[in-house]
Amino acid sequence: MPENTPVKRRKFQFFDFIEKPMELFIRICGWSSIIGIATIFVFIFKEAGPMVPRLDWVEFFTSSRWIPNPAPGNPASYGALALIVGTFGTTFIALIIAVPVGLGAAVYIGEFATGKVKETLKVVIELLAAIPSIVWGFIGLMVLGPLVKSIFTAAPGSAWSKIMVTLQLASADGGTTQGTNLLTGGIILALMSVPVIVSLSEDALRAVPDNFREASLALGANTWETVRRVLFPAARNGLLAACLLGMGRAIGETMAVLLATGHSNRIPEALTDPVRTMTATIAAEMGECVQGDDHYRVLFILGIVLFVITCAVNVAGDLIIKGVKKANKA
Amino acid sequence: MTQTNAITTRDLKLWYGNFQALLGVSVDIKQGQITSLIGPSGCGKTTLLRCFNRVNERYGNVRTEGEVKILDKNIYEPDVSLAELRKRVGMVFQRPNPLPISVYENVVFGMRIHSPQKLTTSDLDDAVEKALTETGLWADLKDRLDAKATTLQLEQQQKLCIARLLPLKPEVILMDEPCSALDVEGTKAIEELMWSLAGKFTIVIVTHNMAQARRASHECIFMLMGEFVEHSRTEDLFLNPRNPKTAEYIEGRYG
Ligand SMILES: Nc1ncnc2c1ncn2[C@@H]1O[C@H](COP(=O)(O)OP(=O)(O)O)[C@@H](O)[C@H]1O
Ligand SMILES: [Mg+2]
Predict the structure, then answer these.
(1) So what's the ipTM on this one?
(2) Residue B238 Cα, gap to closest chain A Cα (Å)
(3) Which of A195, A276, A320, B190 has a CA between 20 and 30 Å from the CA of residue B48?
């Protein structure tokens, strides 16, 4: 080191030198999510684009004739109504189950359970979240499906079958052979959304300052009254966000519903009719279509519809949260 | 002067896990008076206060021995209902902690919890107006009853925390350093409010501010290291302390 170089200055020079690239790097990291989304957006629209003016949109949204492989006398037709109904139907059933169960579990873990029970439950929930979706599909196919079938369907004409048919829980023809259907798919999706809802709701509850709980208890409320009257209002935004993310998981899920819903393109008439979702259709047919043909592009349009639905759900959630905030301020 | 005691403790001991925070405290707190608990930080003032409505018990590691009688009922007996106890013994905390709901709902929170039958809107409205008037908030807040309570100024928040106890007609109001988060004005306002509520309620206030104890209490209890040291009329305790330790403390020799 040359004698007359002040050591202190050299150090500063080094940081000067590293600072700019670091800043740039961090900036790129920050922007990467936006760049990523934009790239996906551009790609999907580019692939779907040529089909947008040609597609019969009325048919797409109002008919269930999904015939991607035309045959003589059976022209191609892209009616996605049943697929959309399948996606919404399974998601709806999943939420009916997962929201109460998830919120209940979060409240129990966060506010009632203590010690070993609490720790065990948290680990189990994390384990549930780590199960790959194909395994859930398997469980739907091999375990839950047969169970659902044995409960809801019976020999056509039997008394049980009549009851089920009257209540629209099963179709008159005795239902599916596998037991994979709307209900099975919905339950599997619920099981997959529950860990998301539980862990995010628990975070939201934990974020509520403890002095609110203390205030409520000191006024004579018990834990349940505190949860209902204090914690739920205080954690409302976080709980809503948890449910929306759970819903996102249900809408976007592919492999599990492919196996657990029966993958049958029809509008269900009963709870245990097989259905088919948009995601499963894309996954199943993408491999067999010719890149660049109409079928290929329509699958991308299905992707856009999914994209729009999830965006709408998120925006709706944001608006609800903002509305809640405003109402609180007013 | 014959006066009934609102709170009587006999040989009250409390452990947090293995640490004993109260070493057998016996005090008699007179009904309708303001009694202040003073002593250096960590001597167990808050702990003792929190025994009086058993809110200590929400920490799992707390063990209590001895007797606490509030108006002749031992509150540590197994048949005591915590809800009923806390209705009779209200508490105001160090940091104002209004609930994150509207001003109105804060005031009627206790009524909703404790009343078995459905309350009519006019009952609730009356209770809100009465409680806010008594605490000097009505003029400021009567047009903002739907505002979220956590958006109020700190002084208003702390007054609201007192106001929400009143519809339950408590016998005792416990206050744990209720002014430590407030400025001089706020402190003065709360002390005035305490004087206006004294007589109707028994007030026990924890403070580490001796000037406040002098200004705002009839009686004064001095504690040291989890032990009771002295209990006198406030002016006696400050002018003629009987215990040398008390004298040292009020002369400022402990923190
Ligand atoms: N939740 C708790 N767990 C364990 N120790 C505690 C707890 N609360 C208070 N303590 C201890 O008990 C003693 C008395 O505390 P506290 O009653 O808060 O004193 P003060 O209010 O007089 O400052 C202190 O030594 C404190 O560290
Ligand atoms: Mg204290």
Answers:
(1) 0.90
(2) 32
(3) B190
